[in-house]
Amino acid sequence: MPSRKFADGEVVMGRWPGSVLYYEVQVTSYDDVAHLYTVKYKDGTELALKESDIRSQSSFKHRKSQSSSSSPSRRSSSRSRSRSRSPGRPAKGRRRSASQSREHKDDKKKTIQETSLVLAVLVLLKASENNTKRYNGEPESTEKNDTSCIILEQKLKPDLEIKRVLEQYSLRSRKDDKKTEEIFSEKKTFVAVKPIEKVPSKTKELEFGGRIGTFMLIFLLPATVFYLLLMCKQDDPSLLNFPPLPALESLWEWRVFGIFLLWFLLQAVFHLLPIGKVVEGLPLSNGRKLQYRINGFYAFILTAAAIGVLLYFKFELHYLYDHFMQFAVSAAAFSLALSIYLYVRSLKAPEEELAPGGNSGYFIYDFFTGHELNPRIGSFDLKYFCELRPGLIGWVVINLAMLLAEMKIHNLSMPSLSMILVNSFQLLYVVDALWNEEAILTTMDITHDGFGFMLAFGDLVWVPFVYSLQAFYLVGHPTTITWPVAAAITVLNCVGYYVFRSANSQKNNFRRNPADPKLANLKFIPTATGKGLLVTGWWGFVRHPNYLGDIIMALAWSLPCGFNHILPYFYVIYFICLLVHREARDEHHCKQKYGLAWERYCQRVPYRIFPYIY
């Protein structure tokens, strides 16, 4: 095994991926398996570099001025003088030999090649908005709102930029006999750019309370779901009135488990249908992009048709209400079995396919957060499927079952106004998520979190059985509201939805095409990754306007249940805690990813979720 050349904490010169320029970096760690150094640039950007892309500072030195005068005219007027300072230089006025003349021409040719190379480097750097200042951590004095300014800078200052790069960095070799070979090898490297493959290292910073916290959550999450469902069945669902525990044998029924499996398989069949477009996700650590079929909305239409057929043939859908606890237990058992399968298969997964946040080496922590990032059976992506299909569409079906159960239990010819509002608001939310299914590919759940117990239980149990809590509550605790109150709640929900959808659309459109003329009025802070951080529009109002819209909608879903008990407000309370915690995770990851640019963004947009409050 080769020994490492550079020590942790050592300041060296690291080559920026895809260019021939080196910048001052600090070595933070070394991966003995992949033989990669993790280095940190001055702007906070961290990258994994090969040893061949790192050099000691002593091997770099500024080129000395060739004239005592810094005037360009002085230097241009001395073109007739030889650039070489070798002892064999002929005396002034003496005629050059033929070989010396050829050397002079070769020297000129190499200078032209060097200048062309620097021009190409500058074009690449400008086009990707990764200028030298930003890589060195120097703040920019202006924000950008149009990519045309890059072309404008190239037209106005080409000579100045070339001179600056030539004076600061010597692209020539110190050995004359290898000069031509190294110049052409550098040009070849520049043309055939390959991204550096980053192999996920061990997860050092543990979230959710580490090993102890995740161990407790494995038991606390199911207990919370069962407690909430038992409370809703109570005549007096107050917090101090703890519900009696049911007999264990009453919590399980094989028929219910079979129906749940049938539901899961039906959604899997709908997902595998060759309908809908196929898109690529974000690049993985090895540069590969996975493909995803976008057909969630079609699956929802087919599910609605199947439910309609069942109702036409007099199928009692309120069976869900009568066996609601048993369905929750079946879903929890299935999610636990799925989590065990996911962890076992992840032990054989290649290193580059492991999740950045679930590779700690601790069994409990990796089991909870998810060890493998994108577990697939062939082309069937398990995590992507569970994110939007069985649980999210099942949430709508459960709400419909509660509506029908309310009508049957209370002998109503039509559902109550409160139940209609809850069903309508949440139906809009689910349809919106399925219609904009492609947007989920950029979320933390897909790009960062592995697929383990946390997401499996959350997608298959928490979403359908906790998010439907308001509808379940209204069946046993009917609440009457007036039309003016209903209108006010509807307006509140519409405001929340508008903030949520417009903020997400603004972000997704900007990510897809920052040069779109429709987005010309948006200003952003460029980052070393080539992406921009919006500082106008919704994202200049607070850092997470989509979270703000989500919370407003959550409140609107709870208000139709009245104020007799706090139980139906569990969702909005939990959701605020969830989004505040997620915002803290986002903050940590963005600070590591964007470095100085993120600090500037936080100064420009100080409020995280709630304006003037938080």
UniProtKB/TrEMBL annotation:
It is a multi-pass membrane protein. Residues 53-111 are annotated as: Disordered. It holds the Pfam family ERG4_ERG24. Pathway: Steroid biosynthesis; cholesterol biosynthesis. GO terms for biological process: cholesterol biosynthetic process. Residues 101-111 have a biased composition (Basic and acidic residues). The chain crosses the membrane at residues 212-231, 251-273, 294-313, 325-344, 455-475, 481-500, 521-542, 562-581. This is Delta(14)-sterol reductase LBR. It comes from Chaetorhynchus papuensis. The gene is Lbr.
